[in-house]
Amino acid sequence: MLSKEDILKAQDLPKEIVDIPEWNGQVEVRTQTAKERTQFLKSIRSITEENTIENLAIAFCVYDDKGNRFFSNEDSVLLGNQSAAVVTRLTQSINRLNALGLNDVKN
């Protein structure tokens, strides 16, 4: 049987490296914590025509090599100018790691 300590020290945030040849490199996509998921879901309320749920998810789930978010919420609007193929590739990784179907999320 698991103890409370076992659960609280578990490394349960899988991540994966996604190749982005269009950007000449790779990025890390990470599973959200429960707290981050809540922040992400609250942020969806601020979606506008200039932004998408997918871009916001990228801002919340793509990390640099030091474990910091790569993009801010405000940057998510700018991601709308990037390749739809790249956004789709990152969104697929985000959906897989976070067990979140972004198509199921409603404003």
Report on this structure.
The protein has a domain at 33-101. Helices cover 41% and strands 13% of the residues. The protein has helices at 4-9, 34-43, 53-61, 75-78, 84-98; strands at 15-20, 25-30, 62-63. It has a three-stranded antiparallel sheet. Helix 3 (53-61) packs across helix 5.
Write a brief structural summary:
This protein is α+β, with helices and mostly antiparallel strands and 107 residues long. The chain has 5 helices and 3 strands; from the N terminus they run αββααβαα.
State the main characteristics:
single chain, 107 residues, alpha+beta, three-stranded antiparallel sheet, 5 helices, 3 strands, 41% helix, globular
Can you tell me the residue ranges where pLDDT is under 50 for at least 5 consecutive residues?
A: none
The total of beta strands comes to: 3
Secondary structural class: alpha+beta
Strand content: 5-15%
The neighbouring-strand order within the major sheet is 1-2-3
Let me know the average pLDDT. 90
Q: What does the overall shape look like?
A: globular
Percent of residues in helices comes to 40-55%
Sheet with the most strands, sense and barrel status: 3 strands, antiparallel
Return the string of H and E elements.
HEEHHEHH
Rounded radius of gyration (Å): 14 Å
Continuous helix count: 5
Report how far apart the termini are.
Answer: 40 Å
